[in-house]
Amino acid sequence: MYISLNVDVDFEINSLLDLPKFKQIMEHMKMKINKSKLAEELGVDRRTVEKYLNGFVPKRTRKKSSKIDEYYEVIAALLSEDSKQVFYYRRVLWQYLRDNHGLE
User: Fold this and answer.
1) Where do the HTH IS21-type domain residues begin and end (predicted)?
2) What pTM was estimated for this model as a whole?
């Protein structure tokens, strides 16, 4: 959504994180925000727009690796068609990795 105002301010809203700045501009100019129109343009619910206008900041998620990521090659080899050993249950595979490959 692109908004052009008569004051020398052009403001483009690309994401929900732009909404707090937009709210400050609109309050300074004493104009109302059409939350439904913003929601439609951004593809979210109007209550989500209101939440972000009131200063909501989403929590940062960190990229955490799995315990079995380093054993991916071993697991792939064990579950392949060429493997002599067959694992019908995940628990049995987990016990095998714990006993023979040091998985904790």
Assistant:
1) 20-79
2) 0.53
